## 1
Amino acid sequence: MNMHTLASWNVMISGFSQHRYFGEVLRFFRQMLSEGFQPDEYTLVVILRACIDTEALQFGQSLHDFLIRSSTLTGVYVTNALMAMYAKCKCIEDANTVFRLASERDLVTWNTMIGGLLENGQNTKSLELFQCMRTQGMKPDRATFIGVLKACIALGSLDMGKMVHACFIEDEDSQCILLMSTLVDMYTKCGSTEDARRIFNKMHTRNAVLWNIMLAGYSHSVEEAVKLFEQMEGDSLKPDEVTFLNLLKGCQTEEHLEFCQLIHNCCIEYGHETDLYIGSCLVDVYSTCGSLIEAWRVFEVMPE
């Protein structure tokens, strides 16, 4: 007597999917069908999530074909999982087809498609889809904004970045550290350090990542970067490797030797003198600034 139930099949499929035993998952799925069970939305989503791996693309395509052939009605969760699978497997046109044919779309559907376009280097299309999303009355969330801001960074589009910023400038997410860090990053990389600093100054909470992004924006002005670094120390935040690398980027001429020495002393103070990346950067900067003796001293203490 067969004691299997849909729930028991789902447990087996879920367990093997989590461990990426795709062959066994496919075998279980076929056996489940042969016993007369129809997969539910949970079954389908679990399998598709396991297929977010290029080696499992054929598996995911087979499942999609099965859904089409059997005219199985699927909900928005399966739609989203199908899109994510195709996008991760670099089949963005297939993901777009699923998106266009979807009978139901939620916020995750839009974010998945926008994110998929970004992952596949189609930044302009992701921004076009963002505009379409808004015209259709779907309200973006912070994940949407973070995604499209990254597209603006990739395109170097300050105007588009400002447009995206205007969409949430009065929103409650204006203090979300991840969103605002991405916004500051956009402004610095698109050439508007002044706007970036204005937003940075308004933030109630600033973590090391945000400080480092702002410091990177001053790579053209080591004087301003050092002043900002001193403020960072005043906020009792411990600088990391990225902090010092960003500071050293601004030391490009002999006039900056004094700043290089100051930054070097801070590296020693915070225990980063023997860091390989910082050491290499110090050697390069000292050489650029014309202090070969200091460059050699740093080189001697670098790890082999």
## 2
Amino acid sequence: MNGKFIRIDTYSGYRGCQRDPTGVRHIVATDAENSALGDYVLKALSQAV
């Protein structure tokens, strides 16, 4: 592994510049399938308030 990754976090609510403490964080390999990335994004969006 070369140390590169894709990070998907939720930043939502009144203080949009701060990570949502009740949200999710996904660390995904750069060679992940597009469908897997889409699933992680949808999970993050479903946790956003």
